[in-house]
Amino acid sequence: MFLNRLEIQKFRNLAPALYEPRPHRNYIFGDNAQGKTNLIEAIYLLCLAKSFRTREDSDLVPFSDESYFIEGDFLSDEQIPHHVGIMFDVQQGKQIKVDGKKLGQFSKLVGLFPVIVLSVNDYEITSGPPAQRRRFFNVLLSQSSRRYLDDLKQYDQVLKQRNTILAGAANDSMLGVWDDQLVQSGVRLMMARSNMVEELNHYLADFYAAITGARWTFRIAYSPNVGFRSPDEAEGHFKAGMRRASLKEKRQGRTLVGPHRDEFLFYISDNELRKFGSRGEHKSALVSLKAAEARVLYKRTENHPMLLLDDLYAELDKQRSQRVLDLFDPASQIFVTGTSLDAEMIESSAHLKEQMIFENGQMKRGKWDVHPGI
Ligand code: ATP
Ligand code: MG
């Protein structure tokens, strides 16, 4: 998937402009607080209908304005063009149009324009609580399979209903029905997560070795809340776990067994990253994870996901910085941002001849085609 044209009308601090990014590598450098991440965020929003930084659309509205509006033209790997427009007004809410048609449900956008972002918020994936890792897997699996997204929605819905009953706020005659549905969709989520971990692990060790100069390895271990070796076993263990927990669940008023309590453990060589990792190790692992995610998404969707690598070089030393971009498939469209200091540090790299310098919400100079002031 490629973004050919990005039209910013109103969005955070960005000046109105029409950008024509390059099909492969795009570098955006500049000082702090100039709007680099805002630009990345606008692209992400066009792909997934939400931001990676905020749940509130009103945050994206320029200060002292009432609405935002951005548009983009995409080209799929099979050369099929698509147009996406997103507008939001504090009074009227959000509206998304794909190829001129209004979307009823914003989740319909998920998977149409595969995208991967690396941002400062992602430090939570390797260092934060388990919910952050589950979220990472949910987003990746939802983009790669509509079935997973449907299962996840169903699971979350049933979980909510079940918790309402357990909290004593609803009649418990439905509990058995919800139990069955929870197990059915839950087992499918567990299988998909287990396969995904295995698939990511095919790439992770090599990618991590490539950044670090082959000195360490990186792998993920799936630690499901309900242990299993096969789908049948998963169903049996899930049901048995629920039976065992039933008194405790009623006491606590919530569901205690199931994939909403899964954990994923990240290991650098044999040490758990979350406990022992240095900042550079966290960053290297994250970048390897995103690069592996890109390979898996491509394999499953046959479309190269766009890569939005915000502050790619932050936390990495010079050697790792110089190697890091090699992890990403050169056939993909990549947007990389960095500070002016990063630009100096890796100046020798030939790619950087194509950089653009961002200042005060707009491009100051560079090699992109930009039509300011639309
Ligand atoms: P850094 O190198 O520090 O990451 P950046 O170039 O990525 O900087 P951004 O996060 O894009 O910076 O933010 C640029 C500016 O946009 C900030 O000064 C921020 O306060 C401002 N900003 C954020 N939201 C809005 C908004 N809704 N309206 C206007 N300006 C905003
Ligand atoms: Mg930034």
Please describe the topology of this protein.
Elements: E1 2-10, E2 17-20, E3 25-30, H1 36-48, E4 67-75, E5 81-89, E6 93-98, E7 101-102, E8 115-118, H2 123-127, H3 130-144, H4 146-166, H5 175-212, E9 218-223, H6 231-252, E10 263-268, E11 271-272, H7 273-276, H8 279-301, E12 306-309, H9 318-324, E13 334-339, H10 340-345, E14 355-359, E15 362-366, E16 369-372
Parallel strand pairs: 3-13, 3-14, 8-12, 12-13
Antiparallel strand pairs: 1-2, 1-4, 2-16, 4-5, 5-6, 6-7, 9-10, 10-11, 14-15
Helix pairs in contact: 3-4, 4-5, 5-6, 5-8
Bound molecules: adenosine-5'-triphosphate and magnesium ion.
Residues 36-37, 310-311 line the site of magnesium ion.
Q: How would you describe what is shown here?
A:
Strands 7-6-5-4-1-2-16 form a seven-stranded antiparallel beta sheet, with helices on one face. A six-stranded mixed beta sheet has the order 8-12-13-3-14-15, sandwiched between helices. Strands 9-10-11 form a three-stranded antiparallel beta sheet. It has two domains: 1-21 and 29-112 and 342-374, P-loop containing nucleotide triphosphate hydrolases (Rossmann fold, 3-Layer(aba) Sandwich), CATH 3.40.50.300; 124-279, Glutathione S-transferase Yfyf (Class Pi), Chain A, domain 2 (Up-down Bundle), CATH 1.20.1050. The chain is built from ten helices and 16 strands. It is globular. By secondary structure, it is an alpha+beta fold. A hairpin with a 3-residue loop joins strand 5 (81-89) and strand 6 (93-98). The model has no long low-confidence stretch (mean pLDDT 92). It binds adenosine-5'-triphosphate and magnesium ion. The site of magnesium ion (MG) has 4 residues, from helix 1.
